[in-house]
Write a structure and sequence with these properties.
Two copies of one chain form a homodimer. By secondary structure, the first copy, chain A, is α/β, with parallel strands linked by helices. The first copy, chain A, has one domain: Metallo-beta-lactamase, Chain A, CATH 3.60.15. The first copy, chain A, contains six helices and twelve strands. In chain A, the strands form two sheets. Chain A has a six-stranded mixed beta sheet with strand order 1-2-3-4-5-6, with helices on one face. In chain A, strands 7-8-9-10-11-12 form a six-stranded mixed beta sheet. The radius of gyration of chain A is 17 Å and the shape is globular. Chains A and B meet through strand 1, helix 1 and helix 4 of A and strand 1, helix 1 and helix 4 of B.
Chain lengths: 236, 236
């Protein structure tokens, strides 16, 4: 990692969500990835103590398990919100397409379309790290049974976009439920039980179709709120 | 951080404990810091998948809130257990004094005596990171009201040993309860509300004496178990 790139990982325990802060030490321009509504104060306090200026708030996708902090952070800081054009979120300031780049100071975040968990899933690459949202989790992946989910598309996204990155690329997912904090592309290629170690697309599709998961507790609150950048329907 | 130093942070959610893995990519010798009994399988699976060989299992102190995984990991892997000589844990393979170093591959962990939360608290320094146990937490510190705790000694440990490290040193604590994962010495000097920003020893001692905290839930199980390296009294 570049010595002037500040990196911080935050964890929100109710939804087991990781939020990430990236910043250029020189000048202090910074981006937040996947902030959670309930932990906005903590995250913005950290930004303030580091003396940073938020320029973008990114969502990897329209989350179903928590309300995004993006809209409220925009309101408080003036940062621009950004996510995939395919997510259909009209209130976003920036609609991203595959390959688009967002600058903060001397660094860039590159958007990689990685649909499958949802239509509008993006991963974000920056300086040897990839923020994979729910497309690729540590030894797992996001579900594909709602929000236009498609196991076929997720398999292709992971194999064609994420597994094409160098093996040493650090994988920073949107969630973990077992206390794991990061992985690498090389480790997930080898040990991901759903998507790695030679699993075929057919095997993956069958496996995903048999999961029979319960609905996320907050889905009926989170989806409409997140389509409005978290500004309506969030906790009062 | 040296490019050949593997670093991984794990989280155990019941006791909010961070466990750390450090390894030399060349040769694979590695150390675990503060493993928790309940998450031994997860941690050792990670070690195995990375192809590492554990040489030491370190405890920063005799924990009161969880049972250490050290003894059981020693039994399964042959790694040596190590902690402060002042902890009085007779079953430890290595009893550490201030300034002692333990080698794993081409790297060294240096022991820093940082008593105050307990008599036998140590911090461990390695390649720009300091593993502070409960001596210094992110914007906080460990309690000082049992296990020979002393607010005076903790203040001196933090100010004389930890705050003497370079400002950019990454602080990796044994716990966090708000989803913060790491800090730096510079940030804690400036923003730690108990120990930083010009707080005097007198102010700190008074503050610590007024906390009136409840006892840790597991203290009556954890202390005797941890005095036996976690080998007796751990979950069956």
């Amino acid at each position: 990692m570049h010595p002037d790139l500040i990196f911080h990982q935050f964890f929100e325990s109710e939804s087991s969500t990781y939020t990430y802060l990236l910043a250029d030490r020189a000048g202090g321009e910074s981006v937040l990835i996947d902030p959670v509504y309930e932990t906005i104060d903590r995250d913005l306090n950290w930004v303030r103590e580091l003396g940073l200026k938020l320029v973008y708030v990114l969502d990897t996708h329209v989350h179903a398990d928590h309300v995004t902090g993006a809209g409220e952070i925009r309101r408080r800081t003036g940062a621009k919100t950004a996510l995939s054009a395919s997510a259909g979120v009209a209130c976003a300031d920036v609609s991203l397409r595959d390959g688009d780049e967002l600058a903060f100071g001397r660094f860039r975040v590159r958007a990689l379309e990685t649909p499958g968990h949802t239509d509008g899933c993006m991963s974000f690459y920056c300086e040897g790290r990839v923020f994979t949202g729910d497309a690729l989790l540590i030894r797992g992946c996001g579900r594909t049974d709602f929000q236009q989910g498609s196991a076929e598309r997720l398999y292709d996204s992971v194999h064609q976009k994420l597994f094409a990155l160098p093996d040493e690329t650090r994988v920073c997912p949107a969630h973990d439920y077992k206390g794991l904090t990061a992985s690498t592309i090389g480790l997930e290629k080898e040990f991901n039980p759903r998507l790695g170690s030679g699993k075929t697309k057919g095997e993956f599709v069958r496996l995903m179709s048999e999961l029979r998961l319960a609905q996320p507790k907050k889905i009926h609150e989170a989806l409409p709120a997140n389509m409005a950048c978290g500004e309506k329907g969030g906790p009062p």
